[in-house]
Specification:
Distance between the termini: 38 Å
Number of domains: 2
Largest sheet: 5 strands, mixed, barrel
Oligomer: single chain
Strand content: 15-25%
Number of helices: 15
Helix content: 25-40%
Radius of gyration: 23 Å
Strand order of the largest sheet: 14-15-16-17-19
Shape: globular
C-alpha cells in the first residue's frame, strides 16, 4: 500500500506547471514541424516559423511560451488503496502547488484568475483556484494530469444539444468558422459526444490530453467509427483553409480527438473545445517513492527553423506616425514597428471609454492621439528583462470600444490577434485606421522586440494596466487595411479546399 505525502503532491504540481509553461510536448513539436514543411501559404508559414522559434527560445530560456499562462485544470485518479500522509485535503494540496508555481521568482507566471466573476472580478494574485476533476480507481497510485488552458482558446468552446439524427461532423464544421482565429490555430480540437451537457464538455477537455497521432491513424486506417469521425473532421476542417492564425493556409488543426459516453435516447449532447498553439499538459504518477521526476525534452526534437523578418517587410516608425502612412499599408503586408506604443485590454478600455463618453479627461499623461495600441497583458519580467513574454490577446474583445477609441481618443491603429467583427472593420474603414496582428503563441519572441516599458495609467489593474512599450522591429501583419479589407476574410477564401489531397506525414 502506497503512502502519498502531501509535500510530494505540492512539489509535483508546482514542477509540472513550471515545466509546461516553457516546454511544448514532443508530439506537438513534431506535428508543427510537419505543418511548417507542408505549408504553402507565405503568411501561415511565417506564423508557424514564429511559433516554432518561440518554442525553442522558451525551452532554452525557461520562460513562458505564451503570456497567458492559463487557468489550471487538473485531472486526478486516486487509487482506492492509497494512504495519505497529509494535513491538507487533495484540493488544497493541488492549489498550494499552483500557488508555488505561479509565484516562482525564477519564472513568475501571469496570474489570470479572478474571483467574484460576475461582479468585482478581483484577481486572486496567485492563479488559484485550479479546476480539479477527481475520480477513484483500483490500485495504490495517484495519477495526475496537469494542464494550463489559455483564455483565448477556452473562450471558443462550444456546446449543443443536437437531435439524435444530426451529424456531429456537420455541426463541428459549422462551428469552427464561428470560432474565428482567437484560439490561435494550428492546434487541436477536442470533441465530446454523449452523457449529459456537462459530461460532453468534460469529455472534450479530457480528449485534449491525448497525444497527437493523426499521422499514424491515416497510415494504418481507421478501425472504429470514432476514428472515422476523427479523420472526417480533421480533413474537412483543414479544407476550410483557415490556416495558422486564421491567415489562410493548409493546416488549421494538427489533430482531432473524440471521446464519447452513453446518453439519453432523446439526446445527442456534443461539445467542441480547441487547444491553441501553446498547448500545455503533462501526466505523471505518484507511487509513494517521492515527487514526480519530469525529464526535459531533447532539444534536438525541435526542427531547424529559425524565424527572421521578411526581407520585404516595411519598417515603420511609431514616433510621428501619420494617418497618410497608415492608409498606405496593404492587407497582408509585413511591418516591423519601432518606437513607442501604448497597451490596453478589456478593463482599461472600459475605464477609458467611460471617461470619454462622459466628457471627462483621461488620466494625466495618457493621450492616444496619433498613437498605436497593443492589446496585451504581459508576464512580469525576471532578471534583466524589460518585460516578460508579451504576446497579443484576442482583439475582438475590444470591438465594443473601438469606434470610441478611434473617434474620440484619436487612436491611429491597433495590434492584437485574430479577426475583428464586421462593425469594427467598418469603423476602421470609416476612420481610415488599420488593425495589425502579432502571432499568438510567440510571446517570448515578441517580447524580445520590447526595449522599454513603463506604466502610464491604472497601475492597480496589474497586467491589465496601460503601459507604454518602446519596441524595435516588432513583427506584425496588416490584418485590416484602412479600406476595410480583412485578411481574415480573404486569406481563408483563397486557401479553401486546397488541403484536399495533401499527404500528412506519418508520426
Amino acid at each position: 500500500m502506497s503512502v502519498i505525502r502531501q509535500a510530494d503532491v505540492i512539489a509535483s504540481v508546482a514542477d509540472a506547471l513550471q515545466y509546461i509553461s516553457y516546454y511544448h510536448t514532443p508530439d506537438f513539436i513534431r506535428a508543427m514541424g510537419r505543418a511548417y514543411d507542408m505549408e504553402q501559404s507565405p503568411a501561415a508559414r511565417d506564423a508557424i516559423a514564429q511559433i516554432l522559434t518561440n518554442s525553442r527560445l522558451c525551452a532554452e530560456g525557461h520562460r513562458p511560451i505564451c503570456q497567458d499562462t492559463g487557468i489550471v485544470v487538473v485531472f486526478v485518479k486516486v487509487g482506492m488503496g492509497v494512504r495519505w500522509d497529509a494535513t491538507l485535503d487533495l484540493e488544497a494540496m493541488i492549489n498550494e502547488g499552483v500557488r508555488r508555481a505561479y509565484l516562482n521568482p525564477d519564472n513568475k507566471l501571469r496570474a489570470s484568475i479572478v474571483s467574484d466573476p460576475a461582479f468585482k472580478r478581483a484577481n486572486t494574485r496567485d492563479n488559484t483556484p485550479a479546476v480539479i476533476h477527481t475520480e477513484f480507481i483500483p490500485g495504490d497510485e495517484v495519477e495526475i494530469t496537469v494542464a494550463a488552458k489559455g483564455g483565448g482558446s477556452e473562450n471558443k468552446s462550444l456546446f449543443a444539444m443536437l437531435n439524435p439524427s444530426d451529424s456531429v461532423a456537420d455541426w463541428v464544421l459549422e462551428m469552427v468558422p464561428e470560432m474565428g482565429a482567437g484560439w490561435c490555430p494550428p492546434g487541436m480540437l477536442g470533441v465530446g459526444i454523449g452523457g449529459s451537457a456537462e459530461k460532453a464538455m468534460l469529455l472534450a477537455k479530457k480528449s485534449l490530453m491525448q497525444p497527437i497521432d493523426i499521422g499514424d491513424l491515416i497510415a494504418r486506417g481507421p478501425k472504429t467509427q470514432l476514428e472515422e469521425l476523427r479523420l472526417e473532421i480533421f480533413q474537412r476542417v483543414n479544407a476550410l483553409g483557415i490556416g495558422a492564425q486564421g491567415l489562410g493556409g493548409l493546416t488549421t488543426v494538427l489533430d482531432v480527438k473524440v471521446m464519447d459516453y452513453p446518453t439519453h435516447a432523446a439526446s445527442l449532447p456534443v461539445a467542441v473545445i480547441p487547444n491553441c498553439a501553446a498547448t500545455r499538459h503533462i501526466h505523471f504518477t505518484l507511487d509513494g517513492s517521492g515527487p514526480a521526476m519530469l525529464e526535459p525534452p531533447n532539444l534536438d526534437l525541435w526542427p531547424k527553423v529559425k524565424w527572421a523578418p521578411d526581407a520585404g517587410a516595411r519598417r515603420v516608425s511609431l514616433d510621428g506616425l501619420t494617418q497618410a502612412e497608415v492608409v498606405s499599408w496593404k492587407p497582408g503586408e509585413r511591418l516591423l514597428l519601432s518606437g513607442k506604443m501604448l497597451t490596453g485590454r478589456d478593463a482599461a478600455h472600459k475605464r477609458i471609454c467611460a471617461l470619454l463618453d462622459a466628457g471627462k479627461p483621461l488620466p494625466a499623461g495618457l493621450d492616444f492621439h496619433g498613437r498605436v495600441i497593443y492589446y496585451v497583458g504581459p508576464v512580469d519580467p525576471v532578471g534583466t528583462e524589460v518585460v516578460g513574454p508579451a504576446g497579443p490577446t484576442t482583439a475582438n474583445r475590444m470591438d465594443r470600444f473601438t469606434d470610441t477609441m478611434l473617434g474620440k481618443a484619436g487612436l491611429l491603429a491597433m495590434v492584437g490577434k485574430a479577426e475583428r467583427g464586421p462593425e469594427t472593420v467598418a469603423s476602421i474603414a470609416k476612420h481610415r485606421s488599420a488593425y495589425l496582428i502579432a502571432v499568438g503563441g510567440a510571446a517570448f519572441l515578441v517580447s524580445n522586440a520590447i526595449r522599454g516599458s513603463r506604466v502610464v495609467a491604472f497601475p492597480e489593474l496589474g497586467m491589465e494596466a496601460v503601459y507604454e512599450f518602446e519596441v524595435r522591429d516588432m513583427p506584425v501583419t496588416v490584418a485590416v487595411s484602412s479600406e476595410g479589407i480583412s485578411l481574415h476574410d480573404t486569406g481563408p477564401k483563397a486557401w479553401a479546399g486546397k488541403f484536399a489531397g495533401i499527404a500528412v506525414a506519418v508520426e
